[in-house]
Amino acid sequence: MAKAVRIHEPGGPEKLVYEDVDVGDPGPEEIRIKQEFCGLNYIDVYHRTGLYPLPPLPTAIGLEAAGIVSAVGSDVSEFKVGDRVAYAAPPLGAYASERLIPRHRVVKLPDSISLEQAAGMMLQGMTVEYLIRRTYEVQPGDTVLFQAAAGGVGLIACQWLKQIGATVIGTAGSPEKAELAKAHGCDHVILYREEDVAARVREITDGAGVPVVYDGVGAATVEGSLDSLKPRGLFVTFGNASGPIENFNLVTLSAKGSLFLTRPTLMTYTASREDMVSSSTALFDAVAKGLKIEVNQRYALADAAQAHRDLEARKTTGSTIFVV
């Protein structure tokens, strides 16, 4: 019987239950995947706690995995049994040894991408793609600020931004994480626990500030992010690792220089099949050009609760996967 990590009620990591599930046969528009690796992402915490909406409980969580097609529905023509595939998309249920998923949410993997790599790169990599190519299209010569540059998204972003030709200012919580960010292309790293982020950004940019800040941290970094922007700059807040931004006064944007603010999500930017294929293809191309996907933590799927504890304690760097 297949195994899955499910929640029966929202809450802490202890609410993650490793249990038997019945997968069944795919419907006409579905495929069944025997999953070998699943990705761990901070959005999984938001689902586990109930911060983000959940389907009827109990439900498996997780949005990213890679594996082998084990069955296809009657109307599926673009996949066949044995294909290597990956996804980073709803519906929830990636924390499983085998699952059903709509065919339009899945992509085939190039031969050059391993299943382990794919499980550690799809969600984070496509997040970077839409952030730096579509939310704000970074140009050669731009200087950008990326909060939490040593995280999974941050390490991919630093490399991809350097491919574009940008100057990258990143933040990190320790000297060790700062060195990791630098090794992945970050030009300037600010230790946010010891330094005034906005003051250092102004120093690095000769007082000008940056045209865009990418911030997946949330409540703890909002002021520093806003104060790092040049007039009419864009604040891209795409995550809540330190908690959601609440009671935000929009007048702040005018007071700090007619700033723009957006709260994008990967699910919106890859809602159509066309956008998802385009995003994943751009990611595969960036990897082919030298972008490295580093899986720095591996857990057994049964140990999902510990993985969540480590993620929330900021003990992880780069990508984290579950071995099914």
TrEMBL record:
GO molecular function: mRNA 3'-UTR AU-rich region binding; NADPH binding; quinone reductase (NADPH) activity; zinc ion binding
Record's keyword annotation contains NADP: yes
TM annotation in the entry: none
Listed InterPro entries: ADH-like_C, ADH-like_N, ER, GroES-like_sf, NAD(P)-bd_dom_sf, QOR-like, Quin_OxRdtase/zeta-crystal_CS
Coiled coil regions in record: none
Lipid metabolism keyword on record: no
Pfam families recorded: ADH_N (PF08240), ADH_zinc_N (PF00107)
Domain named Enoyl reductase (ER): residues: 11-322
Cellular component GO terms, alphabetical: cytosol
Alphabetized UniProt keyword annotations: NADP, Oxidoreductase
Name recorded for this polypeptide: Quinone oxidoreductase
